[in-house]
Amino acid sequence: MSDCKALDVDIGQEHIAIQRRYDALGAVNDLLIAVWFLIGSFFFLKESLTTDGTWLFILGSAQLLIKPLIKLISLIHVGRVFKRTKK
Fold it and tell me: What is the pLDDT of residues 28-39, one digit of tens each?
């Protein structure tokens, strides 16, 4: 736990800027997931659009994989900045 606090203190503003970028990217990803699932749900109300709705669900599901990747990349980025500032 103390390592996390040291990480936040040691790289200060740069950590905040990096984190905000990844948070914004995550928010856009979450918004798109919601849009795909909402539109896909409406498509299921009309039989002729069911296939398109299924593809939107598949797209939204695939984007759910992006969510943890964004977090992982964010942690790696902050870790590299931390190592660079320690030198």
Answer: 999 999 999 999
